[in-house]
Specification:
The complex is a heterodimer. By secondary structure, chain A is an alpha/beta fold. In chain A, 35% of the residues lie in helices and 28% in strands. In chain B, the strands form 4 sheets. Chain B has a 3-stranded antiparallel β-sheet, with helices on one face. In chain B, strands 1-2 form a two-stranded antiparallel ribbon. The interface between A and B is large, with 60 and 53 residues.
């Protein structure tokens, strides 16, 4: 059974803004999935739907086989959640926040909490408002992982943190729990983090899933073809080809992203548009993201 | 950017429409009380000084809770505007807003002119006086923490605010009957103080203000923080689950703007006050209070106005494994507890502290002596026409019952009458017979009229001219005297409070959906609040139009309650109906709460500008 199962999920905000459209994502136990997309792509909405904090307008959502809106308490007890928006109450002391979480999660691991608290060097008597942003996020992380959740949802958890704090945060959370078989879904704008931590990448664009692939496949099976500015082929013609994910104009030429290995892309281009000498090469995640976002029709 | 443009985009001006509504409603409520006093005084025009308090309160609420401390927005600090420019624009905006609110308040007074006799022509002069004093107060307040874009709430600020408010009130009282030219004194002082303060404003405001609430934001933990973790630290210690869970959840939910950690206290005080007023507890000190029913919409209004801010912290607990039903109980239980506590306290004051529900009074005015038996309003009667029954004693003496039309508009319509009073001069024996009947009706205890004459009345001829010993202390004289069961009062009051409140809360919770925008949510909240407030002050125009009579409404209500308690079957049916209504309304509100989808950024749902949101 999948830990997370979203099928054909739609969500809409005020003014008819479509936040998610026909999104289907499933995550198995132990998988680390990076969720990427430009601002407003629907990442936070997807996370909040998974948490049961929003209900889908259409489609089904199951976590551990349960409906997170209907079995909210049972589901949330098995989830750790940290988001950029979810700020801890500033007026509470760290120990009170931790105390609350310990009382709410039956699987709370005191030893792990203690270890993390010492590692983060946070005073239990300090009020949240006296902590730096990074430290406050560390307290949130401690609360999210110390009950050893079966699923960890991290929505831009490291947003606003410096590179060192970000790395420490992600490594702590992801490495610590993934070793124990926890499934992790984390969204980030830092594609290097995703490349380093995730097994699989889900890319959202305008509320739709554009890519859902494991990273190894992504590295092997995606390529970028470059066409000079001579008008030999049009953007529309390229977009109509099987496997073409996006075409972007740059300096008069065209850059087309294909869900094919470089050799397969060259072969396809020769067969379909008669251009066999277009340079094709593998592409990094960050470049792929830019090509995809900029190359959508 | 010109001063005028900066002034017009200042929050003191931008929020003026909402504050005008609040001011108008506040003034309406106070004018209602003054109108009652005027009515009791036979319509005599009140002196202008009588209006100082309502007008002062309008400006006092604004200065205390309005956008006075916030001199600009953080964004303005990034614009090429000097702090002096921002300071001057904000001070000007606050002065202008204060003057406009005073005018709005005075306009309400004039609008209710029919209730107040002829409103004094000195009202305009009073507005000018108070506006000048307000200008001085604003400039004085703006002298605090000149380096700050927003003045932190500190003991110093509170002291300054209290001083300013007292000074405005004192000036209003002193200058109420004086010439308008007197206003030049505070106005000139305000100008001089503004000039002097303006020169002391630094070139730029600080974004992070030290001292007060802002201080903590700028501090950083000491490097030895980890030392605090001991075996007793919660992360390593023994379980303390139950206590911690509830106390922390309540601490989170009830620490919301504008009152912060004092929310629960403020909430309890206001709701308990509503409960106490609804229980008629105030009648322990002030007899003949007809306004009890007005506090039904008042209590609903207070409870609903608190519900909005209580949604502010839900985002903190939403990701936690706490059921929505539990959260709903956590939000509703303190309200219910405060209401019941207030009602209980009022009931205690009314039934224990007040000695007698039946009283006999004698008053002489302009050579005429009035005698009357006072009974609770529920024991008065309503006749369909002005033809009220004659009161005939066993020995044949007969007089008409005292009466008054239920509606001033319909003098020939339904009429309130007292079966225990007559407007005629009657014999001492007849007065004693009336009092004896009242005691029988209210207490179910029989006291022979002869005994009343002998024990309490001073008689000359056959008329009562005084009360022996000054009063009729029935409960002191007759041990064990207690009123007859009064009917399911609490049950009815609870249902009439809880059901409308929960229905309004249901409507409000339906706006917490992803597809509903923040603006729509706010519009719904303020509209529902306005409806609740209209219920609170709606009686004033109805009274003025002669459609509603407060005493009549209260008699009808209390007679209904007495009737509902007459037989065990009706009583049980009343309880069952009230309980079913409350449970149904609760389930309806809970159903909407269970479906709540919280926005990622919560709204404060308060006009009060009292401290930054304490995330």
């Amino acid at each position: 059974m999948n830990v997370v199962e979203l099928n054909n999920v739609d969500q809409m905000y005020a003014g008819g803004v479509l936040a998610l459209s026909d999104v289907s994502v499933s995550i198995e136990a132990g998988q680390v999935v990076g969720l990427v997309g430009e601002n407003g792509a629907g990442k936070t909405t997807l996370m909040r739907i998974a948490m049961g904090m929003l209900g889908p307008r259409r489609g089904t959502v199951r976590l551990f086989g349960l409906d997170p809106r209907h079995d909210a308490v049972g589901v949330k007890r098995r989830i750790g959640y940290v988001s950029e928006d979810q700020i801890l109450p500033a007026f509470l002391r760290v120990d009170r926040v931790i105390d609350l979480h310990r009382s709410l999660f039956p699987t709370w691991d005191d030893a792990l909490a203690m270890r993390l608290a010492e590692r983060f060097k946070i005073s239990p008597k300090a009020k949240i408002r006296t902590l730096s942003k990074g430290q406050a996020r560390q307290v949130a992380l401690l609360c999210a992982v110390a009950h050893r959740p079966e699923l960890l949802l991290l929505d831009e958890p490291a947003g606003g943190l410096d590179p060192a704090a970000r790395r420490e945060f992600l490594e702590t959370s992801i490495r610590l729990l993934n070793e124990a078989g926890t499934a992790i879904l984390f969204s980030s704008h830092y594609l290097t983090d995703v490349e380093r931590m995730a097994d699989r990448l889900v890319m959202l664009h305008d509320g739709r899933v554009l890519i859902d692939s494991d990273l190894d496949t992504l590295r092997e099976s995606y390529s970028l073809a470059l066409f000079p500015a001579n008008g030999a082929v049009s953007r529309e013609r390229l977009l109509a080809l099987d496997g073409c994910l996006g075409v972007r104009e740059r300096s008069g030429g065209l850059r087309a992203l294909f869900a094919l290995a470089p050799a397969e892309t060259s072969e396809l281009l020769e067969e379909t548009v008669g251009i066999g000498d277009a340079p094709c090469h593998r592409i990094g995640l960050e470049e792929m993201f830019i090509e995809l976002v900029g190359g959508q029709a | 950017m010109s001063y005028l443009r900066t002034l017009l985009r200042d929050d003191a001006i931008r929020r003026l429409p909402l504050w005008t509504v609040v001011t108008a409603l506040n003034t309406s409520v106070l004018i209602g009380s003054i109108a009652l006093g005027v009515a009791r005084a036979g319509g005599a025009t009140p002196p202008v000084s009588r209006f100082v308090f309502p007008l002062w309160l309008a400006v006092a609420i604004y200065l205390s809770f309005g956008p006075i401390r916030t001199r600009c927005r953080p964004l303005d600090l990034a614009l090429p505007l000097s702090a002096r420019h921002l300071w001057l624009a904000h001070a000007g905006a606050a002065v202008l807003a204060g003057a406009l609110l005073l005018t709005a308040s005075a306009a309400v007074v004039v609008a209710y002119g029919g209730l107040l006799g002829q409103p004094s022509t000195g009202l305009l002069a009073l507005v000018v006086q108070l506006a000048a004093a307000t200008a001085l107060a604003v400039v004085f307040l703006q002298g605090a923490r000149l380096e700050a874009w927003r003045v932190p709430v500190t003991a110093g600020w509170i002291l300054r605010l209290v001083g300013a408010l007292v000074a405005i009130l004192a000036w209003g009282l002193l200058a109420a009957d004086g010439p308008v030219a007197l206003a030049l004194v505070p106005a000139a002082l305000a100008g001089l103080l503004a000039l002097w303060t303006h020169r002391s404003v630094p070139q730029a405001f600080d974004l992070v203000v030290t001292g007060g609430r802002g201080a903590a934001a700028g501090t950083r933990p000491s490097p030895k923080l980890a030392a605090g973790w001991t075996a007793e630290s919660p992360a390593a210690g023994a379980p303390r689950a139950g206590r911690t869970r509830w106390s922390t959840l309540l601490a989170i939910l009830y620490n919301v703007p504008p009152w912060g950690p004092f929310t629960l206290v403020v909430l309890s005080v206001f709701v308990a006050l509503g409960g106490a007023l609804l229980s008629n507890g105030v009648a322990a000190w002030v007899p003949d209070v007809e306004m009890r029913l007005i506090f039904l919409p008042f209590t609903v209004y207070i409870m609903f106005s608190i519900t909005g801010p209580l949604t502010y912290r839900l985002q903190h607990v939403d990701p936690l494994p706490v059921s929505r039903r539990t959260l709903f109980i956590a939000l509703m239980a303190p309200l219910a507890l405060a209401l019941l506590t207030g009602y209980g306290a009022g009931w205690w004051a009314h039934t224990v502290a007040r000695p007698d529900l039946v009283q006999f009074h004698i008053a002489t005015s302009r050579g005429e002596t009035d005698r009357w038996v006072h009974v609770p309003p529920g024991y008065l009667e309503i006749a369909p026409t002005p033809d009220v029954p004659e009161l005939t004693a066993p020995w044949g003496e007969s007089h008409p019952a005292s009466s008054t039309p239920l509606s001033r508009r319909r003098p020939n319509g339904a009429t309130i009458y007292s079966p225990f009073n007559t407007p005629d001069e009657s014999s001492a024996a007849f007065e004693a017979w009336l009092l004896s009947r009242a005691i029988e009706a209210v207490y179910g205890h029989s006291v022979p009229p002869e005994q009343i004459v002998e024990r309490y009345f001073v008689v000359e001829g056959d008329r009562v001219v005084a009360i022996a010993g000054g009063g009729v202390p029935l409960r002191a004289d007759l041990q064990g005297l207690s009123p007859k069961p009064g009917g399911p009062d609490l049950t009815v009051v609870l249902a009439l409070t809880a059901v409308p409140f929960l229905l309004l809360a249901s409507i409000f919770f339906t706006t917490f959906r992803a597809r509903v925008g923040d603006r729509a949510r706010k519009v719904t909240f303020w509209s529902v609040l306005a409806v609740a407030m209209l219920g609170m002050i709606g009686h004033i125009p109805l009274m003025e139009l002669g459609i509603l009579d407060l005493l009549g409404s209260r008699i009808l209500f209390e007679k209904l309650v007495l009737a509902l308690g007459r037989t065990p079957e009706v009583l049980a049916a009343t309880w069952a109906l009230a309980a079913a209504s409350i449970v149904a309304a609760y389930l309806m509100a809970q159903r909407q709460f269970l479906r709540v989808e919280l926005p990622s950024k919560p709204s404060k749902f308060t006009l009060v500008d009292w401290g930054a949101p304490n995330a």
